[in-house]
Structure formats: C-alpha cells, structure tokens
Design goal:
With about 675 residues, the chain is mainly β. It has seven domains: about 1-95 and about 255-290; about 100-250, Jelly Rolls; about 290-375, 3-Layer(bab) Sandwich (Phage tail protein beta-alpha-beta fold), CATH 3.55.50.10; about 385-405 and about 565-630, Beta Barrel (Elongation Factor Tu (Ef-tu), domain 3); about 420-430 and about 520-560, no CATH class; about 435-515, no CATH class; about 645-680, no CATH class. About 10% of the residues lie in helices and about 40% in strands. The protein contains eight helices and 43 strands. The strands form ten sheets. Strands 2, 27, 28, 29, 40, 41, 42 and 43 form an eight-stranded mixed beta sheet that branches. Strands 6, 9, 10, 12, 13, 14 and 16 form a seven-stranded antiparallel beta sheet that branches. Strands 5, 7, 8, 11, 15 and 17 form a six-stranded antiparallel beta sheet that branches. A hairpin with a 3-residue loop joins strand 42 and strand 43 (about 620-630). Helix 2 runs antiparallel to helix 3 (about 345-355). It is elongated, with a radius of gyration of 34 Å.
C-alpha cells in the first residue's frame, strides 16, 4: 500500500507485479533519504552520453510486529532465500490532483463583497434559496446589454498544479433567460487584473435552479481567480436572478497520474546489525549500468542514422522494444558496424557522432536518445516550462516556483568553453570483390564432421559469399564438402565447413567486397576571438560522420561553446501540490526561465540533470542543473536579392545554429520541399 502516494516495491518473487509477500516495502521505508537522478554529468558537461545511475534507500528491518524480515540469513523470514541481487526495484508516485474551493459566501447574512458590474443591485435574500441559508439576488438595471455579478474574494490558485479550473454556479431566474455566461476573472500575485475568461451562454428555465458552468485554463501569470456570472442580451429589471452554491473546481493536468520514477535492479545491500531497526540499506542500478551483454559483433549496415544504429545495439543486447525512446538522429552513416566493442562504448561513439546537444541516458527504465535537433523541434525546449525565482526582497507566492533557501549556485561556464574542433573523417568505399581471408593448411575431415572457422578480414566487408568450388574459393583434394557462412557482411564472419564424405580440403578462402579507407578528410572549426583568450579543444571524436555531418557538428560546437554559457543549480521542494507536480514532470532539455534578483540572473536555461531526494516519503526535492540556452539564429538571415533580407535589413547568420521556424521538416506546411532550409 502506498505511503503518501509513494510506492516502493522490490520484486522478491520475480513475478514482475510487485504484489507478492513483502514486495510492497513502502511502509518499511526508514527515515533516511531515497536518492536518485539522471541526465548529463555535472562535472563533464561536454560528455553527451550520460552515465548509468543508481537509487539508494533504507528499510526498517526490525520492529514490534516483525523481526529482521529483510535479513538474508534469517531463515524465519517469509522471503527467506529470495533476498538476492538482481531483483526488480520500482518507485512510483501517484497524484490525486484535484482540489475544490467552495466560496464562503453562503449568503446567510450578506453578499460578502459581491458587486454588480454594469449596474443593477445586489442583495441578500432569505428566499428563494437552494440550501436554506439564503441566496444572492441580482436585479439588472434593465437597459444594459451585458451585466455581471462579480465575486469579491480572490481565491489563490498559485498552490494548485497546472490544469483547469471549472467555475460552477447554481442560478435561478424569475422569468427564465437564454444567455447566462459562467466566467472567471484572473489576477496576478500582486493583485493586478489580467483578463476575464468566459464560457458559452447557457439557458435557465424560469423559477428552476439550474447549474451553469464552464472550464478554463488559467494564464501562466495568474495567481488568483474570482468567479463572475455574466448575463447578456439586455436582461430587464423585471427579471431577478438568484445565485447559490458557487464552486471553483480545480483538476490538475496530471490528475490521477502515476509517475514511474525508477525501474531498476537491486545491485547491492547490507544490514546494519548495530542500529535499533537493523536497517536494510539497498542500492539499485538502472538496467544500462547492470547490463552484462557481451562485446558487439554486427553485420555492416548501409545508410543508417545514429538513432537507428543505437536501436540495433539495443536489439543486440536484448533491450525491450517498449523501453526505448529514440530519435532517428540527424547524422547519416554510410557504413556502420561494430566488432569487439562494449555496448556502452559503441553508444558513446554514436552519440558523439550526432553532436551536441544530443544525449543518451536511462530514465525510469526507458533508454532515451535525443538527437542534435531535439531542442530545436521540441515544444518543451522552445517554450518555458516554468519561472524559477529567487526574489529580493522575498515576494508573495505566485505562479512562479521559488527555490529552496541557500540552494542556488551559479557558474559562469568559463571552464566549459570550447573554441576549436578537429575531426578526422575516414571515407570508405567498396573495392572490387576479392579474397579477404584464406587458409591453405590442409583440412582433413571424416564423414559428417563440421568445423568452424572465423574469418577476420583487415577491413569490414559486404557481399560475402560462402567458399565454393565454382569460383575456386574451396579447393578439395578428396571427398565432398558443403559450406555456409554466419552472415554476408561484417568485420568477422564465421564459416561452417561440413564433410559430406570423408576427405581433405587443401585451400579455403572467403570472397567479399572490402570497405577500405580510400581517403581521410580533416574537418576543423574555430573561433579566433575566443582562442585569443585560451585555446580549448573539443574532447571527443565523431567516428561515424560523413564530412558534411562532421563539419555541421564542428560549426555547431564552436557556435554554442565558444562563449561562456552560465550553469545554475538550485533545489525545488514540494511546498504544495503545484510544486510537486512540477518536480515530478520536469524532464531533461526542458526550457525554464530563471530569475535571481540577488545575482542579476534573468534568462532561459535548459535542464541538463535532475537529482531527486525523498525523505520519509514526505519531503520531495529535486536539484536541477541547467545550462543557459544556445545562441539563436536570426529570423531574417542575410540573403542577396530577397526583400527585407538584403543590405540594411538582413542579419548575418551563424554557422551551426538552426532556426526552428525555417528548418526543413517533412510533411509540415511551410517547412517542406521548396520551403524549409536544410538543418545542420
């Protein structure tokens, strides 16, 4: 059973559903913290493939009702023999996300500050009433097209998660009316009026209490809401309107949602025999950190993109297809293969060949790869997902998110500057079909015997053909033999030689088309002005790039990294439901606006890393590391002979920077063929 919406489960039985004996360990969580995180390395911001991460937690292992159930050596435990590493660990948080505010104006004694907009009179009457405490009665002036009864108490909504607010009124018209409009007035945290949101006009039958309501999305700057009941169509002063039971119903955007925070495997644990609770301390590792997959040996794939190749690696190591979120990638690879490479190292090479701000990481069991265009294309990266503030002097609560006291750190990004890039690009082209491997040692075999040979050409090959006597690649002194090969491309190909009858093979060769390096291109980019201060080189290579992609990546690196890009770190705490929803919904590459009056910071940043801390399944904090957004490409890049973009009009474009509004996108109006511009 979850505790305060959190559920920590350990799959002792291996059933996969966390419902077995002692598998819901939420009620045993100790006072210590549950900690976990993901995203780009804070210490190495130019590292594109993020490392694997772990979660730490502690369980109370002894109490009045139980005795050392989580001790592996305790044979009296209901889970004796099941406490072993590798067991699934899952952490979730379910939100309720709904809060109803009933107006205190029951009109038992007065109208509690309600006013008439557009004229007319408002008063409290004992009858008619729906709840027996009286009602608000509004008499229109009789010659005004649109009038309203407006609430006087501003209800705070800044503590509510993002979502919708429904304004509901019970209305009675003495003569009936067809155009009664439920509405809400929005106000800032400082009390300034923002706007009125109005619903559809609704009818009310004469002398019958009728519900009129509408649902609205508050503007981003709204901190307070006030109900407004508008009546249009020039209601006469002979038609009185009574209002009772005013409600503001908030439904969060994530109402009822269960957030999967971690999906790991138990990696290490220990029991503290000296603590009164005999504390069981566990660490779980994400699946990427625990993979024991062997080194890769793949065929040669032609014409794949980086995201496709990452998918092929995940296929090779058995990563579930439903646990992936992969961009296709912008870098095009003419020939891709891996031989004898660790899967993590192979993905590092691919992400580096995609270029920044590409990133690969594991979040809640999902392997995520985002390509170098993802921040240009993502709505969450182009529109601020929240205002983070450290105001001075401290202001009233509002639609912003205030950081935890003394948690804000600022780094100007001087050490992260990169102003010179050099890539060596090997260009491979198919050679003529030829022998790429041969053995001339006599091979004597008995009938039915099969032998396995590993052919390792010096270059990767394609179009490999099994040895045969037709092209002379299989020469037999005596007997009859058949051959098959494991695949027709790669850096290593296995040959299976079978003797149909006993005999001897005098020579065996593998014919294929090799892919040698035919030339090498050096790709460079640099910023002389930045180099004049200190020359700093990009630390990684881009081994799978074509010259075009390598140049695009080099230009982008220099354009983005050659100037200081400040980094900030701060902590948000679940001060209320709205803060918790933001903590749970923040994602890598989200754009956020950060305002720190003390330091003079007021700009947008991208989220690079998230570190969560949950204390007693109650206090939930997230420490965010974010980097300043990239320079932007001019909307009107200088173009000869184009009106509005020529001399004195156009702005010089920046190499390596793309414009989301103009970059080429398939099947998107205004950005397709003959409209969009090829991106870097």
């Amino acid at each position: 059973m979850s505790v305060r919406g959190y559920l920590l489960g350990i799959d002792w039985s291996g059933g996969g559903n966390y419902t077995g004996t002692l598998e819901d360990v939420s009620s045993y969580v100790d006072r210590g913290d549950i900690t976990f995180g993901w995203g780009r390395s804070v210490d190495n911001p130019t590292s594109l493939a993020a490392p694997s991460t772990e979660m730490a937690f502690t369980l109370r292992n002894r109490d009045r009702a139980w005795d050392r159930w989580f001790s592996p050596e305790n044979t009296s435990s209901p889970i004796s023999g099941l406490i072993t590493f590798g067991k699934g660990v899952q952490l979730t948080r379910t939100v309720t996300g709904q809060q109803t505010t009933r107006y205190s104006e029951t009109w038992a004694t007065g109208t509690a500050g309600w006013t008439a907009a557009g004229g007319g009179t408002i008063s409290r009457v004992a009858t008619p009433t729906e709840d027996g405490d009286g009602s608000l009665q509004y008499v229109p002036p009789g010659a005004v097209a649109s009038v309203a009864a407006v609430g006087g108490t501003r209800t705070p909504i800044w503590a509510l998660p993002e979502g919708s607010i429904t304004a509901s009124f019970r209305v009675r018209s003495s003569a009936g009316w067809a155009t009664i409009v439920p509405a809400v007035d929005w106000y800032t945290a400082a009390g300034a009026f923002i706007s009125t949101a109005s619903g559809a006009a609704l009818p009310a039958t004469a002398t019958v209490w009728t519900t009129v309501q509408a649902t609205f999305t508050p503007p981003g700057t709204a901190a307070y809401a006030t109900p407004r009941l508008t009546i249009t169509g020039t209601p006469p002063n002979t038609n009185t309107f009574n209002v009772d039971n005013v409600l503001l119903l908030h439904v969060a955007a994530d109402a009822g949602k269960t957030y999967l925070l971690r999906q790991d495997a138990l990696d290490d644990y220990e029991v503290d025999s000296l603590s009164p609770a005999r504390t069981f301390s566990g660490k779980s590792q994400d699946a990427w950190g625990r993979t024991d997959a062997p080194a890769l040996s793949t065929p040669v794939y032609t014409g794949v993109r980086t995201g496709d190749a990452i998918g092929l690696i995940l296929d090779a190591i058995g990563w579930p297809a439903d646990k992936r979120a992969l961009d296709p990638g912008a870098t095009y690879i003419r020939y891709w293969w891996e031989e004898g490479t660790d899967p993590a190292a192979a993905i590092d090479k691919l992400v580096n060949s995609e270029g920044p701000p590409a990133i690969a990481y594991v979040e809640a069991g999902i392997f995520v790869f985002r390509d170098r265009h993802h921040r240009v294309r993502s709505a969450a990266s182009n529109t601020s997902q929240g205002l983070i503030t450290h105001t001075w002097p401290a202001g009233a609560q509002g639609p912003d998110y205030k950081v935890k006291k003394d948690s804000f750190l600022y780094n100007h990004g001087v050490k992260d500057i990169v102003n010179t890039v050099s890539f060596t690009v090997d260009i491979r082209n198919p050679d003529a079909a030829q022998e790429v491997w041969v053995t001339e040692d006599p091979i004597a075999m008995t009938v039915g015997e099969t032998r396995i040979f590993t052919a390792q050409p010096s270059d990767p090959v394609i179009q490999a053909v099994a040895p045969n006597d037709v092209d002379g690649s299989l020469q037999v002194s005596s007997g009859t033999f058949t051959t098959t090969i494991s695949r027709d491309s790669g850096q290593t190909i296995t040959i299976f030689l079978t003797a149909v009858t006993g005999g001897t093979v005098s020579r065996m060769a593998l014919n294929a088309v090799p892919l040698p390096v035919t030339r090498t291109v050096q790709i460079t980019a640099g910023d002389p002005a930045s180099q004049g201060k200190a020359r700093k080189a990009w630390p990684a290579d881009a081994p799978w790039c074509t010259p075009y992609d390598a140049q695009a990546i080099a230009n982008r690196i220099v354009a983005v990294y050659s100037i200081e890009r400040p980094r900030v770190t701060f902590t948000l705490t679940n001060f209320n439901d709205r803060y918790l929803s933001k903590i749970l919904s923040l994602r890598i590459s989200d754009r956020i606006t950060v305002k720190n009056d003390v330091l003079g910071v007021n700009r947008d940043f991208y989220v690079e890393r998230l570190e969560h801390r949950i204390a007693r399944l109650q206090v939930h904090e997230v420490t965010v590391t974010a980097v300043a957004t990239e320079p932007v490409q001019a909307a009107n890049a200088f173009t000869f002979n184009v009106a509005g973009r020529g001399f004195n009009d156009g702005a010089f474009a920046v190499d390596g920077i793309d414009n989301a509004a103009t970059m080429f996108v398939f099947d998107q109006a205004g950005q397709g063929f003959d409209q969009g511009l090829l991106a870097n």
